[in-house]
Amino acid sequence: MSKSKLSQWVWLFVLFVVLLLIPIGVSGFGILNIINMIYLMIIAAMALNLIMRTGHVNFAHAAFLAIGAYSSTFLSMKVGLPFWLCLPLAGLTGALIAWGLGWIILRIKGPYFFLVTVAFSEVFIRLLDWFSSVTGGHQGIEQIPKPSITIPNLFTFRFKSEVSFYYLLLVVMLASVIIMYRLQHGHWGLTWRAVREADMVAESAGVNVLRYKVIAFTTGCFFTALSGSLYAHYVSFINTDTFGLLMMFGLLFAVVVGGRDYFYGPIIGIVLLRSLSAAVAHMAEYQPMVYGTILILVILFFPAGVASLPSKFEAMWRRVLPIRRVSETARG
Amino acid sequence: MAVLYAQILINTLVLSLTYVLIALGLTLVLSVMDILNFAHGAIYMLGAYTFYYLLMHAGWPYFLSAILAIVIIGLLGVLLEKYVLRRIGTAHLEALVVTFGLAMVLESLITVIFSGQPLPVRGLLSGVITAFGVVISLERLAIIIVAAVLVGALFFFVAKTKEGRAMRAVTQNRVAAQLCGINPNRISGLCFFIACALAAASAVLTGPIFSISPTMGLAPLLNGFTAMILGGLGSIEGCVVGGFILGLLISFGSTLIDPTMANIIAFALILLILIFRPKGVMGRVQK
Question: Most CB atoms within 10 A, among A110, A160, A195, B244?
Answer without folding.
Answer: A195
